[in-house]
TrEMBL record:
PANTHER family: ENOYL-COA DELTA ISOMERASE 2, PTHR43684
Origin superkingdom: Bacteria
Keyword field: Isomerase, Peroxisome
Location of the protein in the cell: Peroxisome
UniProt main location, coarse: other
Pfam families, sorted: ECH_1
Protein name per Swiss-Prot or TrEMBL: Enoyl-CoA hydratase/isomerase family protein
SUPFAM superfamilies: ClpP/crotonase
Xref: CDD domains: crotonase-like
Length: 256
């Protein structure tokens, strides 16, 4: 990557925004400048009203190798200030995607380690190439999960398995990640882009309000009493039925 190229590229094509992590020489590791840059991409995504799906992928041989160790070394004398700024920017980026009216689709090949592992798991949908390797790696540095790992990984595999992955496990391959529920689909490496594109297009057929309401229902289900969850489903259904999109869909169905 030349010095003039940004550390992440954004391409918006109708309802699909694709973010490509673009530090292939560093396996797309995320340091302070990279976290700041990711946060700046939010404004462009949020100003594009048609975007319903955000794809995150990596350029080069890996998806994302996690935090940039060289950045940590450069700030050892004031590591807290650096960590708060880096993770603050990264967290604002991730929270906007998780809580916004978007489906986050992570497309993983090669190494997904540390924050890359967490980012992959935080996706609403994750598609992995058959050459993908998932490694929590935090315990190797004596640190705790970041990048939404304690959310995404725990939601996918449950607390017991999450603790094992974070504190005891080594790398797992794409097949094991699929078995555990960390990924939705495994594709041959040379077909990952095409499979990701197809999934993004299918997801993008959903209306933004339906995406947002469905995400909220799914995200809260595990911690919400049954009666409250059923009431939430009722309210979401009623709100959806008041939209023009619902009326148009019913009209199309009747015509058939």
């Amino acid at each position: 990557m030349s010095q003039s190229e940004p550390s992440a590229l954004l391409d918006i094509d109708g309802p699909v925004a694709t973010i490509t992590l673009n530090r292939p020489e560093a396996y797309n590791a995320i340091g302070l400048p990279e976290a700041r840059h990711l946060e700046t991409l939010l404004a462009q995504i949020q100003s594009a009203p048609d975007v319903r799906v955000v794809v995150i992928r990596g350029n080069g041989p890996a998806f994302c190798a996690g935090g940039d160790i060289r950045c940590f070394v450069a700030h050892l004398d004031d590591i807290e200030t650096m960590a708060r700024e880096l993770l603050g920017a990264l967290n604002r980026f991730l929270l906007a995607l998780r809580d916004g009216p978007y489906l986050l689709l992570t497309s993983v090949h090669g190494a997904a380690a540390g924050a890359g592992f967490s980012l992959a798991a935080l996706g609403d949908i994750c598609i992995a190439a058959d050459n993908a390797r998932f490694t929590a790696a935090y315990n190797r540095l004596g640190v705790t999960p970041d990048g939404g790992g304690s959310i995404g990984v725990t939601e996918r595999v449950g607390p017991r398995k999450a603790l094992e992955l974070f504190l005891a496990a080594g790398s797992i391959d794409a097949a094991e990640a699929l078995r555990l529920g960390l990924v939705n689909q495994v594709a041959p490496a040379d077909q990952l882009e095409a499979v990701t594109f197809d999934m993004a297009q299918r997801l993008a057929r959903n209306a933004s309000d339906v995406i947002l309401r469905t995400k909220r229902l799914v995200q809260q289900a595990a911690r919400t009493p049954a009666a409250e969850q059923l009431e939430a489903e009722l309210e979401a259904m009623v709100a959806s039925m008041k939209t023009a999109a619902f009326r148009e869909a019913v009209a199309r169905f009747v015509k058939k």
